[in-house]
Amino acid sequence: xxxxxxxxxxxxxxxxxxxxxxxxxxxxxxxxxxxxxxxxxxxxxxxxxxxxxxxxxxxxxxxxxxxxxxxxxxxxxxxxxxxxxxxxxxxxxxxxxxxxxxxxxxxxxxxxxxxxxxxxxxxxxxxxxxxxxxxxxxxxxxxxxxxxxxxxxxxxxxxxxxxxxxxxxxxxxxxxxxxxxxxxxxxxxxxxxxxxxxxxxxxxxxxxxxxxxxxxxxxxxxxxxxxxxxxxxxxxxxxxxxxxxxxxxxxxxxxxx
Length: 257
Fold this sequence. Notes:
Elements: E1 2-5, H1 7-10, E2 15-18, E3 24-31, H2 35-38, E4 52-58, E5 63-64, E6 67-68, E7 73-84, E8 87-90, E9 93-97, E10 106-119, E11 127-128, H3 133-137, E12 146-148, H4 157-161, E13 167-172, E14 180-186, E15 191-193, E16 203-214, E17 217-219, E18 224-227, E19 235-249
Antiparallel strand pairs: 1-18, 2-3, 3-4, 4-10, 5-10, 6-11, 7-8, 7-9, 7-10, 9-12, 13-14, 14-19, 15-19, 16-17, 16-18, 16-19
């Protein structure tokens, strides 16, 4: 399974909404159906790999209450400032949460916040706390797990061109079940090869700065790729101005006994 979405194609889906706080937000859909449109669809089942990816842009002062989701997810904060829980956001930051793991609040600073939400399964929508506390307690075999990376700042084109070789920086150290996140900096024309998708339960690749090529197609900033077994490891080659690419891998699904 592989999905490639160019940022310019996704931009056509950008829509404005009004949050519960009365402040505006914008949502750009990349992959999959939202919980509103997918609910009741017999083709979308729990425990089936189903990529859902979208970009959220929130206005300054917006606060998202603590909540959880029924699917595992990465959130990649790519622009603006604020906080998630106690962690300050300023620069590119990765947050991971297992299904049924409460996190937040998300607080937008003076610049607002833009972030990707990337899932490998269909979700029932945000379950806000404390309203859904009892429902959360009723979930059997749930595994609380959350992690936030250190922030990372993208280079401009002149600095990317001075890179001597490919640089790989771990953002979330690789766990025994495959969960990890890493930042790849590529000089012009250099290639990064991902790990085998069999090592996890789906991977996202996000072009953060510069451009990258896959299959002869140029991926501009904020282009997004998802792949899962049985696809081979991905290969991305930096364009003329170099590239910075984020790799995110979900942990293997727990065994059922």
